[in-house]
Amino acid sequence: MGFALSDMTLTSAAFENGGAIPTRHTGEGDDVSPPLAWSGAPEGTRGFAVICHDPDAPLVSPNGTYGFVHWVLYNIPGSVTSLSEGMTDYTAGRNNMDKVGYNGPMPPEGHGVHRYYFWVLALDQATELPEGLTMWQLLERLEPHIIGMNRLMGTYERG
């Protein structure tokens, strides 16, 4: 499966696609995850995963990956179509702050506007993966089971 966008839609009541992420959802604010909602999952969807990644972060990992991972969430049942603000349900992975859970945008001072991609992945099976997987560990396990995906992009510039 290639990582191609599908007909799914992903939205947030907190910001529009391409719009600014409110400070509340950043490291300079309350650092709570934004509400997310999705629709149009492919027939046969049995589970979901959500990722937030900043490709503009000046970080290259030893394995050659780039950017900064802010959130990895998985083991989301196929019946779920939204996540409430600050929710802690389901299973959290490890972000690039070496923490489990959500850590919001907080680009380096003076680094300009960063783009934050919130991804929803539709899976052809339910998952029961252990807590603490990195984004790359999760994608390695999920890739054969991804049947749909889409993204919502928000921006943030440190004040």
TrEMBL record:
Q: Which CDD domains match?
A: PEBP_bact_arch
- Gene3D superfamilies the UniProt entry points to: PEBP-like (3.90.280.10)
> Region (Disordered) spans which residues?
19-38
Q: InterPro entries from the xrefs?
A: PEBP, PEBP-like_sf, YbhB_YbcL/LppC-like
A Pfam family it matches: PBP
Q: Indicate the transmembrane segments per the record.
A: none
* PANTHER family reported in the protein's UniProt record: PEBP (PHOSPHATIDYLETHANOLAMINE-BINDING PROTEIN) FAMILY PROTEIN, UNCHARACTERIZED PROTEIN YBCL-RELATED
NCBIfam families, alphabetized: YbhB/YbcL family Raf kinase inhibitor-like protein (TIGR00481)
By what name is this protein known?
Lipoprotein LppC
Q: What organism is recorded for this protein?
A: wastewater metagenome
